[in-house]
């Protein structure tokens, strides 16, 4: 199967890091910005880097933007340009459009006009940092839906030397331990009778409210 081709529009902090990572992973990336200095900054890293205004439909057509599998619109500050660009990409028939939103309202408009995925990097990172401040044992939090999450939790001291059977988080908190990470090794079938040790990380899935109860019970 041919590798996916990506175009990134807007080479600020977010767009340029998406472009760099995809290139490092061996993907073909077209990077676009109307600021030629920004284009210059990534020109050695990505496959093609061009200076163009993404609100200019003809310019986008000339770049063959609709031939890319995924286009990421990473224009943050200029909300009007972000919306216009998304509309143009939609009209040109880009198969998958991912757009960075600055505010909730901006995100709503993007969803309405047909963005396939809207991301809120600042908001999400803010929530993560805040969550980590409140629950320092939580290393990673993955939202599965609005109600369910997977969390990676540093083993709290109250769980040291207890086995999964003894802890029985399934009966007590209706959460399931998916895996135990010990010394960087992930074990997805950790023996239920083996004691957990300081330094272990447990990966748990459950309803958000139950995960919070469990976190608080062992904090
Ligand atoms: P970040 O917060 O990720 O740094 P910015 O909003 O600061 O994002 O950066 C957005 C980038 O998008 C800037 O480099 C800017 O030049 C570029 N940009 C803004 N409007 C357009 C446009 N119409 N066409 C192409 N690039 C644009």
From TrEMBL:
InterPro entries reported in the protein's UniProt record: NAD(P)-bd_dom_sf, RCK_C, RCK_C_sf, RCK_N, Trk_Ktr_HKT_K-transport
Family matches, as SUPFAM superfamilies: NAD(P)-binding Rossmann-fold domains, TrkA C-terminal domain-like
BP-aspect Gene Ontology terms: potassium ion transport
Entry's Gene Ontology molecular function annotations: monoatomic cation transmembrane transporter activity
Sequence ranges assigned to domain RCK N-terminal in this UniProt record: 3-119
Domain of life, source organism: Bacteria
Domain RCK C-terminal: 137-219
PANTHER family noted in UniProt: KTR SYSTEM POTASSIUM UPTAKE PROTEIN C, POTASSIUM CHANNEL PROTEIN 2-RELATED-RELATED
Official protein name in the record: TrkA family potassium uptake protein
Species the sequence originates in: Cohnella lubricantis
Lineage, opening ranks: Bacteria, Bacillati, Bacillota, Bacilli, Bacillales
